[in-house]
């Protein structure tokens, strides 16, 4: 990575750290960060709706700007084909932020189901689904350092919703959010562990309250901004351990977070279930994945999260199976 690029990235990071953080939704937070980066004149901030900087003008625009600078691209891609074209025009570099889920659409999260699957399988893309503005801010800052100071290849993708999140992060939370997951409350142990990403985290937290109030079941809640990053790191650790059978088994962030607890894990996303299924092979305890299409066309509601948690506990003999039937009759599951 050229020294000039790293210097520009560090000045971007310094400018963002100096600017006030609104602490609102992921979309509003990233828009505020984009304004700061534009003012710094140390980054390329491209707004997909801009007439002068449309995607088709990229080759000419890049030709006039020798040397790489940090790139933040704000766009509204609805399909994998559009996102593929965008990634090619950006030379598979930068931080690409998609606000499509805030617009009317027949699809869950506003995107064709092919889009999240493309994100999960693209080797140069690290996708994130932040639940709050603080998560989005932490991920963008970490992305600037990873891509442009440390010089790692590839690009980041953030799905941005416009719903306020109220999960303030400390320094450890920010680092762990970049790695893929962090606990909503550190040190808390539960009968069941609930994982959520993006807007689905709010339903997961409501489910945790219902489990406590209605069933006297304690929960440990985790925010997981990137199921894909967790799964890739876990798979890489598994491969390394197979290739080095005499060495101590290599760990990963997912296993470190879930270690020392045999409670079932319920992982929830607003994307298709396949996004969460990536974790299944790397979770040692009972695991249930929920996504759009798992139990209803849209993201699973808090009631389905409760039912799934009770079912997992019943299958392990920790509660009576009749409780699952009672819960099914009690809650609106339509």
From TrEMBL:
Question: Is Cytoplasm there in the keyword field?
Answer: no
Q: Which superkingdom? A: Bacteria
* SUPFAM superfamilies reported for this sequence: TK C-terminal domain-like (SSF52922)
Instruction: Kindly indicate whether the keyword Nucleotide-binding belongs to this entry.
Output: no
One matching Pfam family is Transketolase_C_1
Record domain Transketolase-like C-terminal: where: 180-280
Sorted keywords for this record are: Pyruvate
The family database entries (InterPro entries) matched by this protein are listed as: PDH/Transketolase, Transketo_C/PFOR_II, Transketolase-like_C_2
Fetch the PANTHER family from UniProt: PYRUVATE DEHYDROGENASE E1 COMPONENT (PTHR43825:SF3)
Record protein name field: Pyruvate dehydrogenase
The source organism is: Pseudomonas haemolytica
């Amino acid at each position: 990575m050229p020294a000039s690029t790293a210097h520009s990235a560090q000045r971007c990071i310094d400018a963002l750290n100096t600017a006030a953080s609104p602490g609102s939704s992921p979309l509003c937070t990233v828009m505020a960060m984009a304004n700061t980066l534009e003012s710094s004149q140390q980054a390329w901030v491209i707004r997909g709706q801009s007439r002068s900087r449309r995607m088709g003008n990229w080759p000419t625009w890049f030709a006039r700007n020798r040397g790489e600078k940090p790139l933040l691209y704000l766009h509204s891609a609805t399909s994998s084909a559009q996102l593929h074209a965008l990634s090619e025009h950006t030379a598979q570099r930068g931080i690409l932020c998609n606000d499509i889920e805030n617009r009317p659409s027949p699809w869950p999260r506003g995107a064709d189901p092919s889009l999240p699957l493309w994100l999960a399988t693209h080797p140069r893309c690290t996708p994130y689904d932040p639940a709050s503005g603080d998560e989005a801010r932490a991920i963008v800052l970490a992305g600037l350092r990873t891509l442009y100071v440390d010089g790692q290849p590839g690009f980041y993708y953030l799905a941005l919703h416009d719903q306020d999140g109220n999960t303030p992060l400390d320094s450890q939370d920010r680092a762990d959010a970049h790695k893929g997951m962090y606990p909503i409350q550190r040190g808390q142990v539960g009968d069941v562990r609930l994982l959520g990403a993006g807007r689905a985290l709010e339903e997961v937290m409501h489910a945790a309250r219902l489990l406590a109030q209605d069933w006297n079941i304690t929960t440990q809640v985790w925010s997981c901004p990137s199921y894909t990053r967790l799964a890739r790191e876990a798979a890489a650790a598994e491969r390394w351990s197979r290739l080095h059978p005499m060495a101590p088994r290599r760990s990963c962030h997912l296993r470190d977070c879930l270690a020392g607890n045999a409670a079932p894990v319920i992982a929830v996303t607003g994307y298709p279930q396949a996004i969460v299924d990536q974790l299944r092979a790397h979770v040692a305890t009972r695991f249930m994945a929920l996504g759009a299409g798992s139990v209803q066309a849209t993201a699973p509601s808090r009631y389905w999260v409760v039912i799934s948690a009770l079912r997992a506990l019943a299958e392990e003999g920790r509660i009576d199976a009749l409780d699952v039937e009672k819960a099914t009759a009690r809650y609106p599951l339509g």
